[in-house]
Amino acid sequence: MINESDVVVGIGGAAGDGVASAGNTLALSVARQGQAVYAYNAYQSVIRGGHSWLRLRISAKKPLNHGDQVDALIALNQDTLDRHLQELVAGGVALYNSTKLHPSYEPPKGVQLCPLPVPDLTPAYKDLPVMQNTVAVGAVIGLMGLDFRGLESVLESTFAKKPQVVKINMEAAKAGYDYAAAHFTPLPAQLRQTSQKWAMVSGNELMAMGAALAGCKFYCAYPMSPATHILEWFAAHGKEMGICVRQVEDEISVINMSIGAGHMGARSMCATPGGGFALMTEAIGLSGMLETPVVVVNVQRAGPSTGVPTKTEQGDLNQAFGASQGDFPRIIIAPLSMTDCFTTPALAFNVSDRYQCPIIILSDLLMAEGNETVDPALLDVEFQIDRGELITAMSGGGNRREAGEPYLRYKDTESGISPRAVPGVPGHLHVAASDEHDEDGVLISDVYTDTVRRKKMADKRSRKMATVLEHLPAPKLEGPLDAEVTLVGWGSTWGVLTEAVEQLNREGISTSHLQIKFLVPFHVTEVSAILGKSRRVIVVENNQSGQFARHLRAETGIVAQGHIRKYDGEPFEPKHIVAAVKELVANGTELIEVLSTERGWQTEHPTGTSGDWTGRQVAAAVGASTLTT
To answer: Is this structure's pTM higher than 0.85?
Structure first.
């Protein structure tokens, strides 16, 4: 919960207007004054043009999502001013270059228009129109109550090799800071400098750093948004960390090279969005048949096909369930937050090595490309590395069996886990191929498919899953077991659900929260014990068909009493969930679909109930301009 002053700044413009760079400058400036930041950028897949809308939530207490409202708007073009002026709350401010932008309608009551005469504030604007960004960032820093020195230090470090550029930007920023102080009323929520130190990182960067610290020695990828920044991080740091990094021609090559590296004993990882993962699925089965560990990250985006490539969604859960054909062990993990992206690879590598099977990590664009401040102390860790039953020349693996006993790569053990020898270890010659095989790796032909051999190997692989949950912490209920409402989510909705639960409890609706990270295998006993006593289970997810709700029912038999879904490409905000829960509690509807639009909120109720639908209450709560029944 945000107890400290909390400011949401929205920066909008066309692609190429410098929205991201202005946001990065602002984020670093406030972080250097001890403020925590959560940033989410809604942008289009065009190089130039289109609309970009970056929101930064700033508070001394770490924000868990990008918030419900906009307190300060920085409009870099007329389109942004037209779209987002209406979203400002009372006491909010709208900053814009008064020489080229003008409001086309009256702002909401209590909103302060802050026109900036940019050409008068910085002579450099004539040749560098992007200087309007620097002026506006300086102005908003002052209106939030923060010191100019934080921005000053960021400009100095950003343009350290160009003293003249530093001078021009410093003058423009200070002019904006001083002009705002002299002409505009400060924001009601004033931020104050703290001594907290922050590191500004994205979920993709945290995923890459966590993997590197967990012993990843091979990373392979084909550039595809929103997974590309993981490759970029490894490309920048791989050499110094002794990691082999390869960009290859397609995702088929990516996954096969990653499995090959794993087969040779290296911890290997690859990442792609759902479209690339579709090409990898046959080889996911190869990892299962070879019993070779590999970690595959699917950074979900809105599909199908190319879909909406720069928008977020939790739409690939079914794809992960069905990756490749046939039955074989796989483990599916969905990190809960950007910070969780840092620790999840270590767990994934350990479990993948121990159980010799593919691990699928389901991230998404919201976490992957979002940025947030992280306490550097959380990154100063040393992960424990468990390689499982791995035999190397150094490990003396030859002593693991009786003298004269042949090495059986796929030995039919009680646990289903067989000692895995790195190729080249003396005395451990074996065949590894995509065909079914016997214990010694010799391929079996069709003549054996009706005998015990095929069944024995399939059963052996299956037995590995019996003990996996011993290494995966069970989810825990946040809040009372007998709450009026229990919200159930998975993966990246954790932050927004946490805040929505706090709002609902403050408003008198007793609410608890269960967030699922481990999807396969599933903590059936623990989840059933919790939800079996819940009064009203409501599942929240960012997809259209309720993929997790189906999974929950398949695993536990529990049918949720309510569903809240959003699949327009934008993430949930706390107010969406709060309003939908109120509607479900008041009227007993089974499904609420929350769809955000550029100019407001639209709530859709597709279940076909008759009579007047009180979803208008939901629309009013979230400021809907249209309502469909």
So the answer is: yes
